[in-house]
Amino acid sequence: MNQAMSANANVDTARQWLKRQSRWSPFEIVFWLALLLPFFLFPTYLPLASQIAIAALFALSVDLILGYAGIITLGHAMFFGLGAYAAALLAKAGWSEPLTGLLFAGVFAGLIGFITSFMIVRVQHLALLMITLGLGVLTLELANAMSWLTGGTDGLRVPRTWPIFNYFRFDLWGYTSYGYTLAVLFICFLLSRLLVNSSFGLALRGIRENVKRMPAIGSDHHRHLQKIYTISAAMAGLAGALLAQTTSTVALDVLSFTRSADVIVMLVLGGTGRLYGAIVGAIIFLVARDQLAGINPQYWYFWIGLLLMVVVLFMPKGILGFLSRLAGRRDND
């Protein structure tokens, strides 16, 4: 009897916590409104803002598996690249409608993610790193070998994307591109927010903290990991499709290890397991890269490495984790 009452109390506590987490704070509303400022204050930087939104969506997809489920990956660019090539090849086949191309790329990347998830969920730690890295390298080499389809090292030229809803044309200044990428990012963020603030999200946190204890409470952790890995792959495919549609070109670097490593750097900078860390990290990384490359095109990554070391040493939970800790201290004071 007492055990049943204790279990019900724990369930109620979990529900109340999830309800609190689901509420929107004023800071979140201000944050999303601030992302509209480039339209008015920095119109010349709209192409960069589009790239930031795409990178943030890619980082968000990785955060779902790394920050919440504890799946460490060094090859998630595989799904980003597959999404980019899927959208590009569909456009070259004569169908350049952006929304259906986006959906096609997401479904294709998600399908490959589901197939590979059967390997991913059965290994951990170093073996997981090697498998994800190996899958990424194999996909890159396969794309290079199939130059008749992918364009190989020459890249793939994507036909001009049709207007969104047959009304919003992609312009040279980047207004439509940024609005499009920002809208997709916001929708995926909302879905991710609902996902992590649910019982499924709590199960993922439990797997991250101690995967061996989950079967003891009746949780099928393999199936949970397969689900989130598939969702993450589909989301990464959407990011890749956005890149193909907004830049009208796809190169082999969409599948490169560097792209997978860069997104990990973004998450370390912003903070994992926070969702907003993916967006903040993408903003910091790409703005820093843009400014540093203008100062020194050859050695800009040196300063990124220095910034990364400072964050890891003094802000191990990322910039958002550091700010959250500061806010907690002020509240206690």
UniProtKB/TrEMBL annotation:
What do the Gene Ontology cellular component annotations say?
plasma membrane
Question: Which InterPro entries does the record cross-reference, listed alphabetically?
Answer: ABC_transp_permease (IPR001851), LivM-like (IPR043428)
Bilayer-spanning residue ranges = 29-46, 101-121, 128-149, 178-204, 225-244, 264-288, 300-323
GO molecular function, a single term: branched-chain amino acid transmembrane transporter activity
Task: Could you list this entry's UniProt keywords, alphabetically sorted.
Answer: Cell membrane, Membrane, Transmembrane, Transmembrane helix
Question: Which portions of this protein are annotated as coiled-coil regions?
Answer: none
Q: Pfam families annotated for this entry? A: BPD_transp_2
Membrane disposition = Multi-pass membrane protein
**Compartments (UniProt record):** Cell membrane
Listed name of the protein: Branched-chain amino acid transport system permease protein
Lineage here is:
Bacteria, Pseudomonadati, Pseudomonadota, Alphaproteobacteria, Hyphomicrobiales
